[in-house]
Amino acid sequence: MRYNEKELLALSRQPADLAAELGMRAPKKGNVVKRRLVKLVANFLFYFRTDEAEPIGALLLEHCRVTKEESSGFSISFLEDTERKYRFECWSEEQCQEWMAALRRASYEFMRRSLVFYRNEIQKVTGKDPLEQLGISEEARFQLSSLKA
Amino acid sequence: MKLNERSLASYATCNTPADNSGFLYKKGGRHTSYHRRWFVLRGNMLFYFEDQASREPVGVIILEGCTVELVEAAEEFAFAVRFAGTRARTYVLAAESQASMEGWVKALSRASFDYLRLVVRELEQQLAAVRAGGCPPLPRRPRALLSKENGCAVWSTELPTTPMVTNNGSRPGPPPLPPRRRPSVPNEPPDRASFAQLHEWYGQEVRALRDQWLRNRVQP
């Protein structure tokens, strides 16, 4: 699949929402844990060799599942193949929880659901639609009906 | 750079309704012709397929950091998705009707994750303010999200879980009106702008764009 790599590279250089050196194990690459600089920007997770400026790879964080693993670890897998796991090892349980929470929020889907939630709540309290002022009240992606179970 | 392409393809073709979809003509390169492709917008990813029945996208345009403009081109209903930076590619697309073009320009100019996050942050503050019973605060200047030098964006996205407690008396007044749009749009979002100004900038209302285009006749 073609994609605009230059722009993805530029995104990887943006200020991170969260960044740390973690142990990483790619799926099917055996049990070798590599030390990687892992950087969360928008809904992408970039991973770098610790001494390099360009990422080795990026994971789009849509339709993914973040699971706790043992000893301060977590894994990311995707809906179409939940067995294929990207495993990460943190330095502490605290850091692990921090990353898991951040990754769960780092998707467009999560943001959209949050928006619909807040819109609805504000409307309940004030009787007004906060999106009207922003000129986006008609967008299909922000309607209550777009929320799936 | 490696990318989780299998997941991307799966995201592109999943059952949930897309944010926008339709046929667009895509210009191959600087000197090539247009190809008609089936486009699907999901979040900040613009996928394009050979045709509507294809099971895998030919490609995807990651929309983070782009601007969307009307352009003067041989094709009718043409618009461009532009990225910053030297030698950055500009994607020239053409719709099949005026309405389709306007719909796409609107959808694409508000498709970034950053924009959505700004809106969510704004609503979160509004809700906190109205629950507290007072007037909602003036939109705060988002700091870390816009500053290029700063590190982590610090913001809370915890969804309130407790049921709302209605405050009996005071109803807050309506939020302040956004300031008038400035006549010339700078290249960067104004560094210390209020949220409403930023929304205007990101929003790129089609009418204002068209006015500007008619005035300036900027060449792509």
TrEMBL record, chain A:
Cross-referenced InterPro entries: Boi1/Boi2-like, PH-like_dom_sf, PH_domain
Domain of life the protein comes from: Eukaryota
Limits of the PH domain: 15-108
PROSITE patterns: PH_DOMAIN
GO CC annotation: cytosol; early endosome; recycling endosome; trans-Golgi network
GO aspect biological process, one term: receptor recycling
PANTHER family attached to this UniProt entry: PLECKSTRIN HOMOLOGY DOMAIN-CONTAINING FAMILY J MEMBER 1, SESQUIPEDALIAN
Name the record gives this protein: Pleckstrin homology domain-containing family J member 1
From TrEMBL, chain B:
Biased composition (Polar residues): 159-170
Ranges for domain PH: 17-113
Chain intervals for the UniProt region annotation (Disordered): 159-192
GO cellular component, one term: recycling endosome
InterPro entries: Boi1/Boi2-like (IPR045188), PH-like_dom_sf (IPR011993), PH_domain (IPR001849)
Keywords assigned by UniProt, alphabetized: Cytoplasmic vesicle, Endosome, Golgi apparatus, Phosphoprotein
UniProt subcellular location: Early endosome; Recycling endosome; Golgi apparatus, trans-Golgi network; Cytoplasmic vesicle, Clathrin-coated vesicle
One Pfam family here: PH
GO biological process per UniProt: endosome organization; receptor recycling; retrograde transport, endosome to Golgi
Entry similarity comment: Belongs to the sesquipedalian family.
Reported function: Plays a role in endocytic trafficking. Required for receptor recycling from endosomes, both to the trans-Golgi network and the plasma membrane.
Assembly notes: Forms homodimers and heterodimers with PHETA. Interacts with OCRL and INPP5B.
Name used for this protein in its record: Sesquipedalian
